[in-house]
Amino acid sequence: MSNSSIFKQIVEKKISANIIYEDKKITAFEDIKPKAPVHILIIPNIFIASLNDINKKNKDILGHMFYIAVNIAKEKKISKEGYRIVVNCNKNAGQEIEYLHMHLLGGKKLSVLL
Ligand code: AMP
Fold first, then answer.
1. In the chain, at which residue ranges do the beta strands (DSSP E only) sit?
2. What is the number of domains present in the chain?
Protein backbone atom coordinates (compact mmCIF):
# COMPACT_ATOMS: atom_id res chain seq x y z
CA MET A 1 0.00 0.00 0.00
CA SER A 2 1.24 3.49 -0.74
CA ASN A 3 0.93 6.37 1.68
CA SER A 4 -2.31 7.96 2.72
CA SER A 5 -1.26 11.50 1.96
CA ILE A 6 -2.72 11.65 -1.56
CA PHE A 7 -6.30 11.39 -0.34
CA LYS A 8 -5.59 13.58 2.69
CA GLN A 9 -4.30 16.25 0.32
CA ILE A 10 -7.39 15.94 -1.87
CA VAL A 11 -9.61 16.56 1.18
CA GLU A 12 -7.46 19.55 2.14
CA LYS A 13 -7.48 20.81 -1.49
CA LYS A 14 -3.69 20.72 -1.61
CA ILE A 15 -3.77 18.62 -4.76
CA SER A 16 -6.43 18.82 -7.41
CA ALA A 17 -9.09 16.23 -8.07
CA ASN A 18 -12.36 16.30 -9.90
CA ILE A 19 -14.54 16.61 -6.79
CA ILE A 20 -18.16 15.89 -7.52
CA TYR A 21 -19.58 15.99 -3.98
CA GLU A 22 -18.39 17.10 -0.56
CA ASP A 23 -19.87 17.78 2.84
CA LYS A 24 -18.61 17.96 6.44
CA LYS A 25 -18.00 14.22 6.61
CA ILE A 26 -16.98 12.96 3.16
CA THR A 27 -15.52 13.87 -0.22
CA ALA A 28 -16.29 12.16 -3.56
CA PHE A 29 -14.13 12.56 -6.64
CA GLU A 30 -13.40 10.90 -9.96
CA ASP A 31 -10.83 8.11 -9.98
CA ILE A 32 -7.70 9.20 -11.85
CA LYS A 33 -7.54 5.84 -13.71
CA PRO A 34 -11.20 4.96 -14.26
CA LYS A 35 -12.02 1.28 -14.71
CA ALA A 36 -15.56 2.05 -15.91
CA PRO A 37 -17.37 5.03 -17.52
CA VAL A 38 -18.40 6.05 -14.00
CA HIS A 39 -15.68 5.49 -11.39
CA ILE A 40 -16.00 7.66 -8.32
CA LEU A 41 -14.13 7.37 -5.03
CA ILE A 42 -15.87 8.29 -1.79
CA ILE A 43 -13.66 8.94 1.23
CA PRO A 44 -14.13 10.19 4.79
CA ASN A 45 -12.71 13.64 5.50
CA ILE A 46 -11.01 12.26 8.59
CA PHE A 47 -8.24 9.70 8.14
CA ILE A 48 -9.28 6.07 8.55
CA ALA A 49 -6.65 3.66 7.18
CA SER A 50 -8.94 0.79 6.14
CA LEU A 51 -12.14 -1.06 7.00
CA ASN A 52 -10.17 -2.70 9.81
CA ASP A 53 -10.08 0.68 11.54
CA ILE A 54 -13.85 1.07 11.74
CA ASN A 55 -14.93 1.15 15.36
CA LYS A 56 -17.91 2.03 17.55
CA LYS A 57 -17.06 5.72 17.38
CA ASN A 58 -16.60 6.16 13.62
CA LYS A 59 -18.87 3.42 12.19
CA ASP A 60 -21.65 5.82 11.10
CA ILE A 61 -19.40 7.14 8.34
CA LEU A 62 -19.96 3.91 6.38
CA GLY A 63 -23.71 4.44 6.20
CA HIS A 64 -23.19 7.99 5.03
CA MET A 65 -20.65 6.89 2.39
CA PHE A 66 -23.12 4.30 1.06
CA TYR A 67 -25.98 6.79 1.10
CA ILE A 68 -24.03 9.37 -0.90
CA ALA A 69 -22.67 6.71 -3.29
CA VAL A 70 -26.25 5.64 -4.08
CA ASN A 71 -27.29 9.27 -4.59
CA ILE A 72 -24.36 9.80 -6.96
CA ALA A 73 -25.31 6.62 -8.86
CA LYS A 74 -28.81 8.06 -9.30
CA GLU A 75 -27.48 11.46 -10.38
CA LYS A 76 -25.13 9.80 -12.88
CA LYS A 77 -28.12 7.81 -14.20
CA ILE A 78 -26.49 4.41 -13.66
CA SER A 79 -28.78 3.22 -10.88
CA LYS A 80 -31.38 1.57 -13.11
CA GLU A 81 -28.88 -0.42 -15.19
CA GLY A 82 -26.84 -1.23 -12.09
CA TYR A 83 -23.54 -0.43 -10.46
CA ARG A 84 -21.04 -1.85 -8.01
CA ILE A 85 -19.67 -0.48 -4.74
CA VAL A 86 -16.30 -1.89 -3.70
CA VAL A 87 -14.11 -1.36 -0.66
CA ASN A 88 -10.73 -3.10 -0.84
CA CYS A 89 -9.16 -3.93 2.50
CA ASN A 90 -5.41 -4.50 2.68
CA LYS A 91 -3.09 -6.32 0.35
CA ASN A 92 -5.01 -9.48 -0.55
CA ALA A 93 -7.87 -7.31 -1.81
CA GLY A 94 -5.51 -4.93 -3.63
CA GLN A 95 -5.88 -1.84 -1.44
CA GLU A 96 -3.23 0.48 -2.87
CA ILE A 97 -3.93 3.60 -0.88
CA GLU A 98 -3.90 3.41 2.90
CA TYR A 99 -6.96 5.60 3.42
CA LEU A 100 -10.45 4.12 3.54
CA HIS A 101 -12.18 4.61 0.19
CA MET A 102 -15.27 3.30 -1.52
CA HIS A 103 -15.31 2.75 -5.30
CA LEU A 104 -18.56 3.44 -7.17
CA LEU A 105 -18.37 1.75 -10.58
CA GLY A 106 -20.92 1.69 -13.38
CA GLY A 107 -21.94 2.76 -16.84
CA LYS A 108 -21.05 -0.59 -18.44
CA LYS A 109 -21.55 -4.31 -17.81
CA LEU A 110 -19.05 -5.10 -15.08
CA SER A 111 -17.27 -8.44 -15.00
CA VAL A 112 -18.61 -10.75 -12.31
CA LEU A 113 -16.19 -11.26 -9.43
CA LEU A 114 -18.15 -13.58 -7.18
P1 AMP B 1 -7.46 0.79 -4.24
O2 AMP B 1 -6.75 -0.16 -5.18
O3 AMP B 1 -8.76 0.23 -3.76
O4 AMP B 1 -6.56 1.25 -3.13
O5 AMP B 1 -7.84 2.05 -5.12
C6 AMP B 1 -7.07 3.21 -5.18
C7 AMP B 1 -7.62 4.02 -6.32
O8 AMP B 1 -7.16 5.36 -6.19
C9 AMP B 1 -7.20 3.54 -7.71
O10 AMP B 1 -8.37 3.20 -8.47
C11 AMP B 1 -6.45 4.74 -8.29
O12 AMP B 1 -6.66 4.90 -9.67
C13 AMP B 1 -7.02 5.90 -7.47
N14 AMP B 1 -6.17 7.07 -7.36
C15 AMP B 1 -4.86 7.11 -6.99
N16 AMP B 1 -4.42 8.40 -6.96
C17 AMP B 1 -5.48 9.18 -7.29
C18 AMP B 1 -5.67 10.58 -7.41
N19 AMP B 1 -4.67 11.46 -7.18
N20 AMP B 1 -6.89 11.04 -7.78
C21 AMP B 1 -7.89 10.17 -8.00
N22 AMP B 1 -7.78 8.84 -7.89
C23 AMP B 1 -6.60 8.33 -7.54
1. 19-22, 26-30, 38-44, 83-86, 102-106
2. 1
